[in-house]
Amino acid sequence: MADRTKIEWTDATWNPITGCSVVSPGCTNCYAMQLAGTRLKHTPSRKGLTSPSKAGPVWNGQVRFNREWLEQPLRWKRPRMVFVCAHGDLFHESVPDEWIDQIFAVMALCPKHTFQVLTKRARRMREYLHIREHQIVAASLKLPRALTRWPHLPLPNVWLGVSVEDQTRAVERIPDLLQARAAVRFISAEPLLGPLDLTSMVVGEGTIDALNPTPWAEALENRRDTEEAWKAFGRDWYYLDTIPTKGDMQPTLDWVIAGGESGSAARPMHPEWVRSLRDQCAASDAAFFFKQWGEWTTAAGAPASQHIGHVFDDGFQMIRMGKKASGRTLDGCEHGEMPQPWEVPAL
To answer: Hey, where are the domains in the chain?
Structure first.
């Protein structure tokens, strides 16, 4: 846990849960996994959470509830953005609902902070919040003041996000995010490993636009086809009927974070993938945040002495210069937009 962090889009990290498991290509070079298996492997919060392999330490699926860190946000006096479980996944399959309950209870007790929850387990997040939405939950916490029941969900100070490193993961995870009750919904496309089209995602036999809202009147006209598409994708249509909406619009993404990979085994990111996301956000109401190029940058911006390190299939060339030298400007501009929270209607 850290009251300060170098992560550009947040102010602090809070790790009441540590540990995870590899579920998709974006996990391959996970910085938290590497730390847990090297520099932090003997600390109580990380010990035994990774197993050695030829490629280095790998998450072994074990998770740990760090109860001594649970109340930390209650003691932070200055309001801040807090990245929740930066070294784990709050909705990992091994995390009991009771642990999640306690973490949400703390977030409910800290309305001055904004909590950013990022997960790769989008379906479990949606299912958990749907269950809690219809229950009054007693929180058995030893906190400075008792929380005897939940306030209305969604909590206005909790932002929900999913990691989407490529189009496959976008189609898998974003629909569940859109169905989850949230004040703000966002994606983290880091490491970005391929192009993303968020405006025309194929779901079953239909498509959804995750950035540009469709008026309910228009959606209802096409409801039969849309409903069949959702069913084919394994989703329960009725969840959509309970989501709070911006006026008469269906839920959309509020924020897109994009970034390249860092570290010794970092994979390069094509500039056109980032430009596409920037332009998709510019054509909608979504905020765009470009976090970093990572280890690789365009050959055009490199010293003449540098050799070409990677050539994409279309002939575009990238070189490895390191995270600091590569920077975070895109076409000469820094993009650091943040979403504007909206008023959440009460249940």
So the answer is: 12-242
Q: Percent of the chain having pLDDT more than 90?
A: 66
272 alpha carbon, distance to own chain's centre: 22
Number of Cβ atoms within 10 Å of the Cβ of 283:
11
Residues 295 and 323 sit within 8 Å (Cβ to Cβ): yes
CA–CA dist 34, 50 (Å, integer): 9
Please state, in angstroms and rounded to a whole number, the distance separating the CA atoms of residues 274 and 266: 16
Q: Maximum CA pair distance of the chain?
A: 65
Q: Which residue has the tokens 């569940």?
A: 176
Measured between its terminal Cα atoms, the distance across the chain in Å is 34
Using pLDDT thresholds of 50, 70 and 90, give the confidence band for residue 23.
Answer: very high
**What is the rounded distance in angstroms from the CA atom of residue 83 to the CA atom of residue 302?**
33
- Evaluate whether 12 touches 83 at the Cβ level (below 8 Å): yes
Q: What is the rounded CA–CA span in Å between residue 255 and residue 72?
A: 27
